[in-house]
């Protein structure tokens, strides 16, 4: 057993853990923060994405004991009904989900992705790696969000929601996504 | 909660019958789902919870000869290792009966842990229960099993000769024919005749199957992500020999299903068994691998489509035969010729389905069983015929568009595929396509465009609902339907709001719990229309009851009025001829001294339910005799194929659908898109690989089974005609499955246009293009 202090969504808790326990299981089973989902437990789906010091990671591939003292944010920490995070609101407005199982991971991933983009981190589709500020095109979003699977296929709504929050696309900001006609 | 602004409307002079239906309202569960507060099965913590893990057989067929559980039992925290030696006895599954559809519930007929027989590679042979999931899993790996191996048939491709033609029944599509297709083929001036194959596929809902089981004496509470809580409840009551009334199954949120969560699989039964055996509440969350080893997926198919035509494109013969697979211990054949019975006006048609039986995990329905893979073969063949004729593939389809059902002359309840193609061709710019293969390119990308028809037959199922109207004007709708991501509660909120003339904010819908009136399965694209039918009936009944209350009061402006003279709106009933004369439900109920009033469709009694089922079944058969009720669509696809590597990218998509009335354009669009996305996966990457020697699935995870990701997809444009079906309440049909049908053919047809290479075996991977 190891003891670790987990700081999640601004609250600290000391937990005794088997050192083999993943951050995902620690969040879900010990802290009862079940918003973060387990879709595969092997780094293949992105459902478990959380933010650590503002960066997105896969909680199923992280050992909880390694994250003592780090600032962890889960979907529950982003916003609550009535006080939703802009991305949470945009996911609703642009229908960026169906069953909702991948949604927590998508939203955390999108928050982390937008921060990466702001910081000038390039992706494989970025045309000029040296450029400081590349626009967040639809292709950039699709590339950068490809670690988050959605079997319901809500991908277009997710792109629209992210574009809307990033303020990069007037069409997404004004069009009713469902109209599509 | 974010609500669309159009709801805060001013009171209209005449209450209109449709305020909410047809609007792109946000999902009612949006805030809970985006904030991570919606509870799925694995999120349930109950007191004194233990955890279970499965041990899978590693042979395809045989008998267990030895079980060494000592090492597993020695692990600290292990509570029990259950095998066929020590597991409590259960009642075996009931034989399938058309009189009780819940007998279709079990995914397999295996009496898990009550037998030493092994029927497929992956069958659970032991369950470990421990105080943590990790301990259970660790110990499960330490269980050693020896087998007496028996010969097994596990190679679908090699088992084709043993395929047996299916006899048609109430539940299974067999052989159908009109005219003499083979003779007509022999004399047709132009013939295409080819073999098409599709691989096994897996649902891979993002939520792995999970169960939480809590016994309290003979009462059982189960949390389960399910597409049919009523089936689950009935099956579990039978297996464990307890009264049905004591079994409750809760499934308020389901993390995707696509057919994979309609049957009851081993994990569910064994979690309940583990809880029974240990006296603890038990949760079992299947790993992705467990899911693939124990939850059946879509069968592989081998199909033959032969088309005969005149030189002007008029079809004379259509032959479609197909072989699908079932397991020796269960499984569902795929009626791959389903759409071929209805799509083209050929005078000679022959459809035949056969199955071959293997020692593998039984197959299960997956989104649009039959049509999803059947349209690949048929719509590829139609494209091949267009090429052979030198004719535009849209024009060829329109030339053979039937006015009545080609098989037996029944009417279509509605069908306007012509309009779907016309609108699609216009929007997509189909006319700009140059017909010959390899004639369009963009640098090193070969560009191709293809079309294919989508087709599905939505089902109708009985449903029971209660509607409660309170004096404060709020409404509670209760029905044990399922929210697997379709926006079911949102749609019924809209239906109830319009039927009663109240704002959508006033309506709450409860679902996914067997304590509620029995709802339909989330399957066959029938849930929304089936529940809406019952809900409309209940709302009529409710308004009648409210009117009866109002008419008792001499002061009521509704006194002496009949319901047919009134309109529901503004939270009450108003006269159609004098819209300002009427009163709100609140006024009527308060004056009558009633806090609330509730109505229920059919009955909660057994007799009531039997009568209701009989009525529903009779209605369904009557409808089937009278007309073909189908949804159709036209897919337009553009691909780019790298001329050096063979990489295929889908670069544009448009689907135009004729799906009847749309309750909610936002959620319906998402569902149609989701089907197209899954179809693109089937077209380009999805394949469950089974080692033909051992029957073992070798890619039981999302790293090796490739579902489409963002970077694989263009924007998916979706459009629909939004014309009500004249034969259904509200004009609803069903949108859940039609999206996936035709997609793989549209891709393969576009790939042929781009490259000149015809791929008749899915998925269209780059090795097939080089
Ligand atoms: S659960 Fe972590 S990536 Fe799938
Ligand atoms: S919303 Fe169901 S998997 Fe994404």
TrEMBL record, chain A:
Matching InterPro entries: 2Fe-2S-bd, 2Fe-2S-bd_dom_sf, 2Fe-2S_ferredoxin-like_sf, 2Fe-2S_ferredoxin-type, 2Fe2S_fd_BS, Aldehyde_Oxdr_Iron-Sulfur, Beta-grasp_dom_sf
Pathway where this protein functions: Alkaloid degradation; nicotine degradation
CDD domains: fer2
MF GO annotations: 2 iron, 2 sulfur cluster binding; metal ion binding; oxidoreductase activity, acting on the aldehyde or oxo group of donors
Superkingdom of the source species: Bacteria
A Pfam family the protein falls into: Fer2_2
SUPFAM superfamilies: 2Fe-2S ferredoxin-like (SSF54292), CO dehydrogenase ISP C-domain like (SSF47741)
Keyword terms, alphabetized: 2Fe-2S, Iron, Iron-sulfur, Metal-binding, Oxidoreductase
2Fe-2S ferredoxin-type domain span: 2-78
Name of this chain's protein: Xanthine dehydrogenase YagT iron-sulfur-binding subunit
Organism: Geodermatophilus saharensis
UniProtKB/TrEMBL annotation, chain B:
Keyword check for Oxidoreductase: yes
A UniProt-annotated Pfam family: MoCoBD_2
Oxidoreductase found in the keyword field: yes
Gene3D superfamilies: Aldehyde oxidase/xanthine dehydrogenase, a/b hammerhead (3.90.1170.50), Aldehyde oxidase/xanthine dehydrogenase, molybdopterin binding domain (3.30.365.10)
Protein name (database record): Xanthine dehydrogenase YagR molybdenum-binding subunit
Stored InterPro entries: Ald_Oxase/Xan_DH_a/b (IPR000674), Ald_Oxase/Xan_DH_a/b_sf (IPR036856), Ald_Oxase/xanthine_DH-like (IPR016208), AldOxase/xan_DH_MoCoBD1 (IPR008274), AldOxase/xan_DH_MoCoBD2 (IPR046867), AldOxase/xan_DH_Mopterin-bd_sf (IPR037165)
Keywords: Molybdenum, Oxidoreductase
Domain spans labelled Aldehyde oxidase/xanthine dehydrogenase a/b hammerhead: 35-151
GO molecular function: iron ion binding; oxidoreductase activity
Region: Disordered, residue numbers: 1-31
Domain of life: Bacteria
């Amino acid at each position: 057993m190891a003891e670790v202090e987990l700081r999640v969504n601004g609250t600290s808790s000391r937990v005794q853990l088997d050192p083999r326990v993943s951050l995902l299981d620690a969040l879900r089973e010990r802290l009862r923060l079940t918003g973060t989902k387990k879709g595969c437990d092997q780094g293949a789906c992105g459902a478990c994405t959380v933010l650590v010091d503002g960066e997105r990671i896969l909680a199923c591939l992280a050992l909880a004991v390694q994250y003592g003292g780090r600032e962890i944010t889960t979907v529950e920490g982003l916003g609550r009904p009535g006080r939703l995070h802009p991305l949470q609101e945009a996911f609703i407005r642009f229908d960026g989900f169906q069953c909702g199982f991948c949604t927590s991971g998508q939203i955390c991933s999108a928050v982390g992705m937008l921060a990466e983009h702001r910081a000038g981190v390039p992706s494989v589709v970025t045309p000029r790696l040296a450029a400081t500020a590349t626009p967040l095109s639809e292709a950039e979003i699709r590339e950068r969000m490809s670690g988050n699977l959605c079997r319901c296929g809500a991908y277009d709504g997710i792109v629209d929601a992210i574009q809307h929050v990033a303020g990069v696309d007037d069409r997404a900001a004004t069009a009713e996504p469902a109209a599509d006609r | 909660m974010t609500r669309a602004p159009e709801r805060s409307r001013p009171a209209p002079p005449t209450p209109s019958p449709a305020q909410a239906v047809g609007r792109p309202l946000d999902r009612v569960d949006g805030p809970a789902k985006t904030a991570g507060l919606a509870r799925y099965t694995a999120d349930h913590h109950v007191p004194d919870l233990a955890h279970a893990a499965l041990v899978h057989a590693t042979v395809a067929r045989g008998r267990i000869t030895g079980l060494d559980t000592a090492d597993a039992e020695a692990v600290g925290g292990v509570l029990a290792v259950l095998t066929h030696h020590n597991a409590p006895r259960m009642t075996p599954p009931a034989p399938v009966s058309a009189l009780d559809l819940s007998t279709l519930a079990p995914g397999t007929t295996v009496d898990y842990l009550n037998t030493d027989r092994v029927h497929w590679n992956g069958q659970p042979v032991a369950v470990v229960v421990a105080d943590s999931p990790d301990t259970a899993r660790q110990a499960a790996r330490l269980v050693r099993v020896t087998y007496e191996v028996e010969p097994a048939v596990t190679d679908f491709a090699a088992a084709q000769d043993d395929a047996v033609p299916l006899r048609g029944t109430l539940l299974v599509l067999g052989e159908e024919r009109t005219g003499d297709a083979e003779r007509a083929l022999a004399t047709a001036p132009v013939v295409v005749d080819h073999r098409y194959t599709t691989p096994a596929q897996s649902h891979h809902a993002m939520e792995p199957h999970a169960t939480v089981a809590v016994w309290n004496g003979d009462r059982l509470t189960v949390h389960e992500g399910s597409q049919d809580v009523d089936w689950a409840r009935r099956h579990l009551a039978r297996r464990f020999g307890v009264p049905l009334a004591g079994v409750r199954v809760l499934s308020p949120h389901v993390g995707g299903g696509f057919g994979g969560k309609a049957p009851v699989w081993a994990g569910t039964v064994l979690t309940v068994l583990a809880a029974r055996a240990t006296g603890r509440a038990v949760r079992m969350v299947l790993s992705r691998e467990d899911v693939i080893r124990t939850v059946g997926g879509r069968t592989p198919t081998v199909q033959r489509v032969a088309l005969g035509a005149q030189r002007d494109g008029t079809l004379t013969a259509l032959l479609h035969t197909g072989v699908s697979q079932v397991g020796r211990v269960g499984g569902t054949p795929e009626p791959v010729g389903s759409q071929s019975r209805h799509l083209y006006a050929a005078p000679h048609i022959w459809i035949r389905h056969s199955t071959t039986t293997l020692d593998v995990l039984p197959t299960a329905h997956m989104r649009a069983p039959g049509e999803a893979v059947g349209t690949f073969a048929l719509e590829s063949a139609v494209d091949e015929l267009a090429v052979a004729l030198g004719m535009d593939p849209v024009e060829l389809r329109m030339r053979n568009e039937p006015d009545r059902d080609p098989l037996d002359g029944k009417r279509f309840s509605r069908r306007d595929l012509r309009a779907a193609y016309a609108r699609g061709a216009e929007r997509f710019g189909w006319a700009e396509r140059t017909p010959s293969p390899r004639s369009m390119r963009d640098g090193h990308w070969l560009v191709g465009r293809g079309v294919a028809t989508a087709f599905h037959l939505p089902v109708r199922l009985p449903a029971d609902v209660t509607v409660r109207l309170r004096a404060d004007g709020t409404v509670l709708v209760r029905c044990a339907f399922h929210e697997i991501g379709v926006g079911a509660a949102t749609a019924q909120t809209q239906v109830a709001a319009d039927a009663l003339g109240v704002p959508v904010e006033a309506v709450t819908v409860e679902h996914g719990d067997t304590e509620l009136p029995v709802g339909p399965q989330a399957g066959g694209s029938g849930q929304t229309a089936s529940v809406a039918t019952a809900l409309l009936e209940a709302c009529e009944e409710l308004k009648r009851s409210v009117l009866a209350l109002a008419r008792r009061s001499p002061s009521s402006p509704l006194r002496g009025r009949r319901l047919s003279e009134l309109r529901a709106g503004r939270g009450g009933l108003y006269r159609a001829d004098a819209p300002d004369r009427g009163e709100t439900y609140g006024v009527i109920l308060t004056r009558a001294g009633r806090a609330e009033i509730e109505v229920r469709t059919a009955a909660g009694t057994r007799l009531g339910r039997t009568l209701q089922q009989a009525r529903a079944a009779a209605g369904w058969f009557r409808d089937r005799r009278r007309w073909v009720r189908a949804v159709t669509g036209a897919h337009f696809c553009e691909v780019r194929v790298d001329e050096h590597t063979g990489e295929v990218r889908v670069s544009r998509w448009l689907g135009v659908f004729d799906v009847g009335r749309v309750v909610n354009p936002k959620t319906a669009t998402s569902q149609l898109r989701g089907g197209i996305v899954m179809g693109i996966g089937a077209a380009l990457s999805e394949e469950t690989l089974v080692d033909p020697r051992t029957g073992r699935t070798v890619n039981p995870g999302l790293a090796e089974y490739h579902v489409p990701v963002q970077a694989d997809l263009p924007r998916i444009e979706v459009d629909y005609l939004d014309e009500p079906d004249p034969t259904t309440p509200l004009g609803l049909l069903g949108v859940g499955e039609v999206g996936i049908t035709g997609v793989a053919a549209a891709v393969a047809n576009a790939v042929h246009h781009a490259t000149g290479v015809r791929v008749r075996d899915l998925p269209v991977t780059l090795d097939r293009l080089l």
